[in-house]
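It is worth pausing here to work through a concrete case rather than discussing structure prediction in the abstract. The textbook approach is simple: state the sequence, then state the predicted structure, then interpret. We follow exactly that order.
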Amino acid sequence: MKENKNSNSFLGTGWDFPPTFSKQTNGIEMTTGKEDIENSLSILFSTSVGERIMQNKYGCNLNHLLFESINTSLITYTEGLVRHAILMFEPRIKLHNLSIDAGEQNNGIVNILVDYTIKATNSRYNYVYPYYIAELSKN
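Step two, the predicted structure:
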């Protein structure tokens, strides 16, 4: 395992996502601080509720909305799902603003914009989670 000398290690340390391995240390690459929080948000947004056996309430269920028409109701519903998931499963941050940007929906992208503060350091950041709507290929 790579030794972490980051001054923000008190924010938590986790596996890099996706998991990667280091040939130099023969261990797993780790992340800490802001990067660990943003990896955690990415995992939270891409996990369906019930997917984790030991934490069956963890996740957002964004994949269930994949083929829905994007309108104001869906955007508001999605914002609620994401807000609830952050509130329940990411206690290291304080959420200031959350919005859904569907401006690139014709390209198959919906961006989830998160404006947050890391509670332990009182540092404010923005995170953009690009939710890609991949079309199924026809055989």
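Step three, interpretation. Residues 9-132 form a domain with the Nuclear Transport Factor 2; Chain: A, fold (CATH 3.10.450.40). Strands lie at 13-15, 21-22, 27-28, 30-32, 93-101, 109-118, 123-132.
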